[in-house]
Amino acid sequence: MISYILRRLVAAVILLLVVTAVTFGIFFLLPRLAGQTADQLAQQYIGKSPTPADVAMVKHNLGLDQPVYLQYWHFIKGIVTGAEYNLGPTTAHCDAPCFGYSFKNHVAVWPELTDRIPITLSLAVGAAVIWLVAGVTVGVVSALKPGSFFDRSFMGVALAGVSLPIFFTGQLALLLFTYQWPIFGRTYVPLTTNPAQWANTLFPAWCSLALLYSAIYARLTRSGMLETMNEDFIRTARAKGLPERTVVARHGLRAALTPIITVFGMDLGLLLGGALITERVFSLHGIGEYAVQAINDNDLPPVLGVTLLAAFFVVLCNLLVDLLYAAADPRVRLS
Amino acid sequence: MEGIPSIMRRSSIAAVAAIGSVSLLLAGCSKADDGTGDGKAKAAGADAATKHMVNASTKKGGTVTYAMSDVPDSFDPGNTYYAYMYNFSRLYARPLMTFKPDAGEKGNTLVPDLASAPGKASDGGKTWTYTIRKGLEFQDGTPITSKDVKYAVERSNFARDVLQLGPNYFQQFMQGGDKYKGPYKDKKGKGLDSIETPDDNTIVFHLNQAFQEFDYLVATPQTAPVPQAKDDGIDYVKHIVSSGSYQFQSYQEGKQAVLVRNKNWNPKTDPLRKQYPDKIVVNLKVNQSTIDKDLQAGDTLIDLQGKGVETQTQAQLVNDKSKLASTDNTYGGRLVYMAINTTQKPFDKVECRKAVEYAVDKVSVQTAEGGAIRGDIASTVLPPDITGYKKADTYATPGNKGDVAKAKDQLKACGKKSITTTITARSDRQEEVDAATAIIESLKKVGINASLKQFPSGKYFTDYAGVPAFDKKNNVGLMMMQWGADWPSGYGFLQQILNSKAIGTSGNTNLSYLSNKPIDKLLAQSIAAGDENQRNDLYGQIDQAAMDQAALVPLTYFKILLYRSPYATNLVSTAAFSGQYDYLNIGTTKK
Predict the structure, then answer these.
(1) pLDDT at residue B203 greater than cutoff 60
(2) Nearest residue of B to residue A91 by CA position?
(3) For chain B, is the Cβ count within 10 Å smaller at the N or the C terminus?
(4) pLDDT digits (tens, 9 = 90+) for B350-402
(5) Interface predicted TM-score (ipTM)
C-alpha cells in the first residue's frame, strides 16, 4: 500500500513537471513560431512608450533574455528552493514554494493563490457534497424502479440539468434568490469568520453548480445500478435472504460506485483548479477568476501557478480515487 | 490612453445633456442637512453635481466608504495610471499641481498644491521652476523638500523594470531622460542632472523641448514626494509615507485599505484639503451590483472607479424619477470612434475614407453602445469636455443616420464601386462588438463589405490592431477604438492618436496610421505656444484637419451614469477626472 502511494507520488511529480513544461512551451514557443521576439514579449509588461533601454531592462529583470530552458529551470528551482527577486532598491528573497511574481504588476503569485484557494475550495466541496448526495440518491431510486413516474420525471430533470449552462442557471438563481427575494447573501464571507453566512452566500452557487453535475451523476448511478442489480452476486445475496436494503446498499451500490468515484475524482480535481464560469457569475474571487485575468494579461507566472495547482488537484484526487476503489470494491487490490 | 474604461484622464462637461425629459436642479448648493434625521440628504436633482457642489457641508467626523469591483493598478502614487487613482491618491500624496475641486469643466482648472504657485517657464518653455510651500511635513514629521519630489519623479519614470504601471512623460521630455536608468540603478546617487534642486524649496526641470503644458504633467501623482530612505520599490505600496491629509492605517493587498487623519498635515500649508471624515475605508473586489445597491442603501458612499453603475442598475435608475434625481450623467472625457487605416488600400485615398464617414449610421451605433445615456453622437475628435473642443460636423448626415447617396458619390470619386475590408473590435467589450456590427450593416448599404475580427483587449494594441504588419496582412481597414486623454487638454488628447511620431512597429494608438505633415506641425506648434488661447485655437485646427483627412469616424462622446449617495457631502463631478466625483473633500452625514 505504502509503496503503491509512493510510486504514484513519483509519477505525480513527473506529470506536474510535464504540465509545467507544456505550459512554458505554449507561452514561449508558440508565439515565437508566429514571429514574436523577446523584445515584443517584454514590451507587454512595460507600459506606455517604452525606450529600447526600458525594454532591455524589463527583459533582463523578467529573465526573458535567457533561453527558455533556463527560464524553466529557474521557475522549477524557485518552487523548491525559493528565488531572489528585484524589488527596486533591494533584492528580496521569495521563500519556497516561490511561484514567481506577476510580470504585469509584480505581485507575488503564491500568496494570491493561497488567498483564493479557500474560496474555490468552498465552492467546489460544497457543490460536490450536494451533487453527490442528490445525484446518487436519485440515481439509485430511479434504478430500483426503472420506468416509473419518479424515474422518468427525475431523468427528465437530469437531462435539463445537463443541458442548462451555468451562466443561465446561476444568473437565474441570483436574480430570484439574491435580488428579487434576498434570501441569500451577496458577498463571500470566509468560513472562519462566520460559517452560517459563508454557507448562506455560497448556497446559490453550490446549487447551480450541483444541478449541472448531479444530473450527470444521477444518470451514471442509474445505469450502473441497473447493470449491477442484474448481476449474479446480487441474486446470490437475495437468495441468502439478506434484506433488500442491505442488498442495495452493501452489494449493489458499492459495486456501482466505482465508475462514479472515478468521475468524481476527475470532476472535483478540475473544479479545484477553478470553476471559471461559476466564479464569474457569483463574483467569487477564486482560482478560476485569477486564471482568466492572467490569461487576458498574458501573464505567465500566474498562469503557471494556476495550471500547476489545477494539475496538482487532479493528480491528488485521482490518487484518492484509487485508494477509495479498494475501500469501495473488495475485488480491487492495490499493489 | 487606449480606451480601457476609466483609465486616465478625461472629464465631464458643464453643459451636460439632460437625461430624457428630466426636470432638474436646484439652483446653488443644496445643503446636506436638509434631509431626514439620519443624515440622508434630499436628492438634489439629476446632474446636479455636474453643475455645482451638492450637499456642501463642513461637518467633520464619520467614515467615508469607497468600494471597487476590482483592484487598482497600485496605490503607489508613482506606479498608477488610472484617473480614479490620480484622483484618490491626492488624499495621501500631494503633487506639485492639481485640479481645483469644482463641477464640470470648471474642474479642469489647475491650481498649485505642493507648489506655492504654478510653474515659472523660461527658455521659451524648456525650463520650468517650482517653489514648494514652506512648513510641509511627511506623516512621520520629517520635512518635505524638493529633493523628495525629484526622487519621486525619478523612481516613477525611470525605474521601469520595477515600477512600470504609470506613464513616462518625464522620461520622454527631460533632457537626458532616455539615458538615465532610474534611482535603483544609479550608483552615484546624484539622480537625473536635468532636474535640479538648488535649495530645499526649489525644483527646476530642464526639458528637451518647449512644453507649455508642463503644469499638467506635474499634476500627476508622480510628483508627489517620496522619501528615498523609505522607498523599497514595489513594496513601497505596503507602507506609503503620506504627504496629504490622510495616511494609511492598514493596507491589505487586494482586500482593503483604511486611511486615517494625518496628524502632521498642516492645514495652513494646504488651501485645498479640508480633512472632514475621521476615516476613509476602501473595500476592494466587491461585486459591482453589490456596490450599486450599497450606494443606494448608503453602506458605500463612493464607487472608487467612477465608471458609473452597471447596466441593470442603470435601467432601474432611469425608470424611476425619484432615483434619477440622485444621478449624474456626465461626459467621461473619452471619444468612441472608428479609426480608418490610411495606409491600407483603398483607404489610402481620402475619398474612400470619406465614403465611410458618410455611410455610418451613428444613431444605430449609439443604440448599440447603450443609448444616449452612454454617449452623445460625436462629430469631432475632441470631446466637448476637453479644453480646445470646437463644435463642428464635417460630414453631417440627416439625423446622423448616414447618407447613402453622398457616400456613394465619394466611393465613385475614389474609383471604386465596392470595397472589401476587415474591421477589428475587442472581443471582451460587448458594446464595441455591437457597435462594429451596426457599422457593418450601414457600410453594406453603400457597397463596403467589412468582416468583423475580434481580439482580446489585453493584446489589441500590442499584437493585433496596433501592429502595422498585422493590419496589412489581414486587410484591416477599420478599427474600433476608444480614447481618453492623459490630461484634459487638446494636446493631451490628440498627440497619441494623430501624431506620426507615435507610430511604431507595435503597440500603436495612432490606429489611423495618420502621417500628415501639417498635423504634425500644428501639434508641435501648439505645445510650444505660450498663450493658452492660441493653443486652444490650434487644437481646434488639428481636430478639423484630422476630420478633413477623414482619419477616423467619431461615433459617440462617452458618458457615465453615477449614483450620488445621499450621505456623501461636497460632491462635484469634475471634468478633470473623467467625470468622477472629486475625492479630495468628500465627507459624510451618516450617523
Answers:
(1) yes
(2) B232
(3) C
(4) 999 999 999 999 999 999 988 999 999 999 999 998 888 999 999 999 999 99
(5) 0.74
Q: Is the bond into A97 cis (omega within 30 degrees of 0)?
A: yes
| Residue B554 clears pLDDT 60, i.e. is over it | yes
Q: B329 and B561 in contact (C-beta within 8 Å)?
A: yes
How far A248 CA sits from the closest chain B CA (Å)? 46
Rounded to a whole number of angstroms, the distance between the first and last alpha carbons of chain B is 40
A57 touches chain B (CB under 8 A): yes
* Domains observed in chain B: 97-239 (3.40.190.10), 331-559 (3.10.105.10)
Q: Which range (A12-21, A22-31, B23-32, B231-240) has the least confidence?
A: B23-32
Q: Give the tens place of pLDDT for each residue, A168-206.
A: 888 888 888 877 787 887 778 888 888 998 998 899 899
**Of the ranges A66-80, A166-180, B439-453, which one carries the lowest mean pLDDT score?**
A166-180
**Chain B residue at shortest CA distance from A189:** B286
Kindly determine whether residue A298 and residue B459, on different chains, have CB atoms separated by under 8 Å: yes
Closest Cα in chain A, distance from residue B160 (Å):
6
Instruction: Say how far residue B23 (Cα) sits from the centre of its chain.
Output: 29
Looking up cell 476615516 gives B279
The pLDDT value recorded for residue A9 is 84
A81 Cβ contact list (under 8 Å, min separation 6):
A96
In angstroms, how far is the first alpha carbon of chain A from the final one?
A: 6
Q: Is A175 on the interface with B (CB under 8 A)?
A: no
Q: Where is mean pLDDT largest: A150-154, B91-95, B508-512?
A: B91-95
Question: Which chain A residues are within 8 Å of B462, Cβ to Cβ?
Answer: 40, 43-44
- Closest C-alpha to B529, from B516, B541, B547: B541
pLDDT at B37: 58
**Is B164 in contact with A46 (Cβ distance < 8 A)?**
yes
The helix (run of H) or strand (run of E) holding residue A85 is strand A83-86
> Is there a contact between B162 and A88 (Cβ–Cβ < 8 Å)?
yes
Interface test mutation site (partner A, options B68, B234, B430, B472, max chain A beta carbons within 10 A)? B234
Angle at B484 between CA B480 and CA B485, to 5 degrees: 140
pLDDT tier at B28 (50, 70, 90 boundaries)? very low
Confidence of residue B20 (pLDDT cuts 50, 70, 90): very low
C-alpha of A277 from chain center? 12
pLDDT in tens, B122-135: 999 999 999 999 99
Domains present along chain A, CATH in parentheses: 2-108 (no CATH), 110-333 (1.10.3720.10)
Question: What single letter denotes the amino acid at residue A45?
Answer: Y
Q: Cα dihedral sign for B482, B486, B489, B493?
A: negative
Q: Which residue has the higher pLDDT, A122 or A319?
A: A122
Q: What is the pLDDT of residue A332?
A: 66
Interface test with B, best of A30, A39, A57 (most B CBs within 10 A): A57
**Distance separating alpha carbons of residues B574 and B586, to the nearest angstrom:** 13
Number of helical H runs and strand E runs in chain B: 15, 21
Q: Confirm if A286 and A279 have CB atoms less than 8 A apart.
A: yes
Chain A residues closer than 8 Å to B290 by CB: 186-187, 283
Whether residue B159 has pLDDT greater than 50? yes
How close does chain A come to B307, measured CA to CA in Å? 18
Cα dist. A108→A115, A117, B338 in Å?
11, 15, 38
Residue B474's CB: how many other CB atoms inside 10 A? 16
Amino acid, res. B215 = D
pTM of the complete model: 0.83
> Which residues is B115 bridged to in the sheet?
B132
* A182 close to B (CB below 8 A): no
Query: Among A43, A72, A44, which residue's Cα sits nearest to residue A56?
Result: A43
